[in-house]
Design goal:
Structural class: alpha/beta
CATH topology of the largest domain: Aspartate Aminotransferase, domain 2
CATH architecture of the largest domain: 3-Layer(aba) Sandwich
CATH superfamily of the largest domain: Type I PLP-dependent aspartate aminotransferase-like (Major domain)
Number of domains: 2
Mean pLDDT: 95
Number of strands: 12
Strand order of the largest sheet: 1-7-6-5-4-2-3
Shape: globular
CATH class of the largest domain: Alpha Beta
Helix content: 25-40%
Distance between the termini: 55 Å
Strand content: 5-15%
Bound molecules: pyridoxal-5'-phosphate
Low-confidence stretches: none
Length: 393
């Protein structure tokens, strides 16, 4: 990596970090679809395997295209090291394998990605790692849940789907005071809007599938942090267990990072305009968007994030049938659970992403039957408004 990188602004890093031009002189980064790498002689092979000389061995753990993506994302998050993974879930699992052992304890926000909850509750529990779930913004509950064997605090902010905002610096101070690690899943904001490491988090986790790709093409994940945690411990899990990103996907994400900041600010501007319009519609009970003055953590969001993101959630009067009517009347929005795409998407959480919860659990999580989640893309806001107005009229 260039020596200048620490002096570069975020926009320059997004375009220029992680560039290692080959002697072909290619201007756009090359893709290296190779499983292994050849050595000049037996001594070079031995030195690579011994780790005494740097260089590639096998694409399960190093590949030039993946390294370019890792260096660029590390530069954007302001972390020393990044390790890429086959998916966001394998990034979360590998982080847990790296920093936890049997008998350890996690305190996690209740409002995390549904599959993350299942990973903690059903799978890590089998190996003797217990998790306590707490409300994202109840700081007393976080502190009370911490035990002597607590090793990891885990959260997403903004939360899905209600866009609640947690104070990362406050939770980082709590983690430090109790000698635990703080991991933040930064999939919703990305480093373009929020940089958890600068606020004191130890680990940043990504589902690259969402905004890092930004066009809904590839599944991938990543972990960013310091050399000891990520460069050694998390990398060791990747090398041994093998949930590796493909070089092609790494190239797609690498190119996605070049436009990340532009896209995130455009998503945010569209989402704010739509949220403000939704708030004026008579059939709507409530709009959840951190950019609205009515949002309970609006001032924290303003201070912690440089934009409010692309996710808008709202509740219609009339429960599930009214919500489904709005969804089924759309022609522009895609009815899909994915998010972070240039194409706007519309989801009914109660019957899809949160459908496996009991009605009581859903009520506790604030997921009403009339709730609709939007991931606002890059279309014209007027077209998105007209699309929703049809079902709201
Ligand atoms: C999608 C998502 C994940 C899981 O990522 P995959 O790439 O689908 O494995 C984790 N966390 C959040 C916040 C997500 O939105």
């Amino acid at each position: 990596m260039s020596d200048d990188i620490d002096d570069w602004g975020i926009a320059t890093r997004a375009v220029r970090a992680g560039v290692h031009r080959t002697n072909e002189g290619e201007h756009s980064e090359a893709i290296f679809p190779t499983s292994s790498f050849a050595f000049a002689n037996a001594a070079e092979a031995a030195a690579r395997f011994a780790g005494t000389t740097p260089g590639n061995i096998y694409s399960r753990f190093t590949n030039p295209t993946i390294r370019s993506f890792e260096e660029r994302l590390a530069a954007l998050e302001g972390g020393a090291k990044c390790v890429a993974f086959a998916s966001g879930m394998s990034a979360i699992l590998s982080t847990c394998l790296a920093v936890l052992k049997a008998g350890d304890h996690i305190v996690s926000s209740k409002a995390v990605f549904g599959t993350t909850t299942i990973l903690f509750q059903n799978y890590l529990a089998k190996f003797g790692v217990e998790t306590t779930f707490v409300p994202l913004t109840d700081y007393a509950a976080w502190e009370q849940a911490i035990r002597p064997n607590t090793r990891l605090l885990f959260l997403e902010t903004p939360s899905n789907p209600l866009t609640e905002i947690a104070d990362i610096a406050r939770l980082a101070a709590l983690a430090r005071a109790h000698q635990t690690l703080l991991a933040v899943d930064n999939a919703f904001c990305t480093p373009a809007l929020q940089r958890p490491l600068a606020l004191g988090a130890d680990l940043v986790i990504h589902s690259a599938t969402k905004y890092l790709d930004g066009q809904g093409r590839c599944i991938g994940g990543a972990v960013v942090g310091n050399d000891e945690l990520v460069g050694q411990a998390v990398y060791g899990v990747l090398r041994t267990c093998g949930p590796s990103m493909s070089p092609f996907n790494a190239w797609v994400f690498l190119k996605g990072l070049e436009t990340l900041s532009l896209r995130m600010h455009a998503h945010s501007a569209n989402a704010l305009a739509l949220a403000q319009w939704l708030e004026r519609q008579p059939r709507i009970k409530r709009v959840h968007y951190p950019g609205l003055a009515s949002h309970p953590q609006h001032s924290l969001a303003k201070q912690q994030q440089s934009g409010f993101g692309g996710i808008v959630t709202f509740e219609v009067n009339g429960g599930q049938s009214a919500a489904w009517r709005v969804i089924d009347a759309t022609r522009v929005f895609s009815i899909t659970a994915n998010l972070g795409d240039t194409k706007s998407t519309i989801t009914h959480p109660a019957t899809t992403t949160h459908g496996r919860l009991t009605p009581e659990q859903r009520a506790q999580a604030g997921i009403g039957d009339g709730l609709i989640r939007l991931s606002i893309g890059l279309e014209d806001v007027a077209d998105l408004q007209a699309d929703l107005a049809r079902g709201l009229g």
